Amino acid sequence: MWILYALVLHILLLGSIFVIYFRSPVIEGLEPQERLKGQPPADRLVLIVTDGLRAQSFFANNCNQVPHLREIFIKEGIVGISRTRVPTESRPGHIALIAGLYEDPSAVTRGWKENPIEFDTVFNRSDHTYAWGAHDVLHIFEKLADSGRPMHFDAYNHDLDFSGQQKTYKQDEWVFDRVRLLLKRKQEELREAKRVVFFLHLLGLDTAGHVHKPGTPLFLENLKFTEHGIWKIYKQFEETFPDKRTAYLLTSDHGMTDSGSHGAGAQYETDTPFMLWGAGVASSVYAGIFFEANDEGLQLPIRELEQAQLTPLMSALIGLPPPMNNFGRLPQGFLGTDAKYEAMAAHTNALQLLAQYVRLQKLHMRGLFAPILNRFDKLTPELIAEYVGYIKTSFTLSRFHESTANSALVMQLALEGIDYYQGYYCNVMLLSTTATFLGWMFYLYRLLTQDAEPKNIDSGMNGHASKIIVGLWVAAVMLLGFVVVQRVPFAVSFYLLLPLPVWMLALRQAPNRNDDLNAPAYTQPTVANPKQVSIAQLLLLIGCAELLVFTFFDRRMISLCFIAFACYSNWETFKRKRRLYLWLMLLVVLACFPLVPPSVGYQNCYLLLGGILLLLIRQFLSKKRENSKWHTRWCSTVILINTAVCVNLHNNQIAVPLPLKIISWLYLVYAFVSIHLNKEASLELRLEHICYNLGTLYTLMCTSYESLFVQLLAIELTTALAEQRAQVEPLHHQQKSLQSSLRIAFTIILYTFFSLFGSGNIASISSFDPNIARCFLSHFAPFVIMSLVLLKLVLPIVINLSIVYTHSEYARLHERQIFICLLLICDIMGLNFLFLVRNTGSWLEIGSSISHFVIMEVTTLVLMLLAYVSKLLLRLTNCDRALSKLN
Ligand SMILES: [Zn+2]
Ligand SMILES: [Zn+2]
């Protein structure tokens, strides 16, 4: 039963983070603001998004990479850096840019392509919108085309080719051609139209970044083509509309790391360039920081703003109100208009933000307890009325600068207020989730100590515990009453109430002791001094978990952790000196891998070749060679040669021929089927088979040293466990047993994280490298590649788990205890991460802290699943028995 509880609870806890920290920013029931009065500075806006272009690529080398664009911004306009938030993906990036709202990442779980909730955009407010680009991006905004406004979307099919045959900038060329076609065809009609938006989405650089990596010659080739193309299309627009009433904005949705990925919060990923020029744009703008714009040493100011601030700016340029759900504040001094127009734009922006705030406040005040609960005092209805009156008088007195400053202040307050009401229950929920965690850990701890003394299981409850349970019921009823009367949102209520059933479950299992609530757990083991032993174990448990928590903040810490743990658990086990030295050498080599800079990890043929050779050597030098099936060896050899050929072809920009790809897919099936069909009963021989097949499969998806690393790790684990087994003492004491469980549980967790950290960065699973699929396919199919990435992450864990099961009889017999220890360690770490989640500070910290928590919660679930898979592969004879024992 406890496995089921664990599954359900961990899924719920995983959800808690989204309820606590990610509330949907879209507020419903809003009305759009009025359009700006008077003549707007521009009639049309050209928005060009170079997908995935980071600021560094733009400004590097004194902007020599973008000579044509430099020519423009030296002459006119504003240039700078726009900061995006995490996740740095195309969808949230474009929504922040065009709707001005930072979509909550949980939207990803609610459907990647459909919009979970309707939101307003600049396109919605405009009279006409023309858009060209990739279907994935245009699709987000196409769905919003309501209210009968003419929107024209033209998307190409997104079957990208990354085999190197086709140039990545073909996609951009397609867009430029389509734009030219439209400008020629509808010239007359477009000249008359006002408040028009042209949106050019250029995907080429994103593809080039993923495939060739930023800064490589092929990437720069694409950049050169695209920036020249933008310049030509700019000239074309100026030719078609000679009235000088076109405004231009060039920016990108997110950046990219050196290894060609995005999604996380590194500076390369969040810093994107922006360029604003044309009608209505200030000719120069004050900025504290300057950069060198060309080789002659020309110094230009560089402006910084948040991505969503571009939304009200775009709206103001063509006389539109900001979209209803916008969170951006109009940056001051960017408009090259008179002070009156800027004051008006700022006022409309402030009203639009206030509308959201007022709406939230109203929703909160519906609750019966609202008058006695805390409120946001900095912005009361009286203050809002005062502000509106002040703006009116300052407009009649022509005090536009004061008016703009005042609007900016109110915008800031409105945003704070929105934050306040959206996070109203945040702290309480944090508290209740902690209580849930503690209750669950208490439950696990009881299970563990019951295990140690099975005779003590008794369903009889003592009076003390039942009193507490009655108390919990009373609390539950009262809390339920409160959330109903106060109209607390459903999800929030759920997590507020969750700790109560968990604690009831934990207390229900009370053993028949009459100690107070916290003591009975410690009194279980039959060892001489039970209390101390248990506390020591508890401390050990917490210490182990805390040590691992640190590794999340510095990848290199895991080397230290690994060496310390390996020495602690194996130092006395080695009897033969020669083996000891070999093992130590292996340890040192392994500990070096996480220290290698990540850039080495993304592509290195020689290291990959080393992995392949090691695999071959292991296969043919194995002592049990006679026993292994001939087809296993030959299939592996063939596939390894295939890998080498594919990699070589790919590196030389030659497409991988279809037969080779088919062989790779066939091997993927063969690797698992042949293990399944193998009737071998000896565990070690089965393990050998598993290591060969899965190791070979893993190598097929490697780009650098990963294969080498994972194999060495497997060798090390095998050596250590085999040596330990050779001198296992009979397990009399329960105390000993608990310690062993703890040690094996920690081994499993440590090796899991080590295999993940050592072979790459686990903090950004979403940002994958398509090159790992080069032996399988040459088209960019995100979901297939994603599945392969997951498979690649999971394979080393399965190998390690199989090794543990094979070489440790203890692990096979005490599975339940080990898994409870495992859950306890993971939960202690999870609780740490729950508190380390930040909702202030830079987005880098917030993003990575959240992903840590998610990784932790997922790990527990995945490990349970993978343990089952490895037992299935090993055909453990007591598999069914063990399973029934677990329940
Ligand atoms: Zn993108
Ligand atoms: Zn991308």
Structure description:
- The chain is an alpha/beta fold and 887 residues long.
- It is 61% helix and 6% strand.
- It has 35 helices and ten strands.
- Helix 7 (135-142) links the parallel strand 3 and strand 4 (151-156).
- Helix 21 (530-551) runs parallel beside helix 30, helix 22 packs antiparallel against helix 30 and helix 25 runs antiparallel to helix 28 (683-700).
- The model is unreliable at 108-113, 454-461, 511-532, 761-767 and 879-887 (pLDDT under 50).
- The structure holds zinc ion (2 copies).
- The site of one zinc ion has 4 residues, from helix 10.
How would you briefly describe this protein structure?
The protein has 887 residues and is α/β, with parallel strands linked by helices.
SSE topology:
Elements: H1 2-21, E1 44-50, H2 55-63, H3 67-75, E2 78-83, H4 90-98, H5 106-109, H6 122-125, E3 128-134, H7 135-142, E4 151-156, H8 170-185, H9 187-192, E5 196-202, H10 204-212, H11 217-240, E6 246-251, H12 267-270, E7 271-278, E8 290-292, E9 299-301, E10 303-306, H13 310-317, H14 339-365, H15 381-396, H16 400-422, H17 426-452, H18 463-485, H19 490-497, H20 499-508, H21 530-551, H22 557-570, H23 577-592, H24 598-602, H25 605-621, H26 630-651, H27 658-677, H28 683-700, H29 706-726, H30 734-758, H31 782-807, H32 809-813, H33 815-836, H34 843-874, H35 879-886
Parallel strand pairs: 1-5, 1-6, 2-10, 3-4, 3-5
Antiparallel strand pairs: 2-7, 6-7, 8-9
Helix pairs in contact: 1-17, 1-34, 3-11, 8-11, 10-11, 14-15, 14-16, 15-16, 17-19, 17-20, 17-33, 18-20, 21-30, 21-33, 22-23, 22-30, 23-29, 25-26, 25-28, 25-29, 26-27, 26-28, 27-28, 28-29, 28-31, 29-31, 30-31, 30-33, 31-34, 33-34
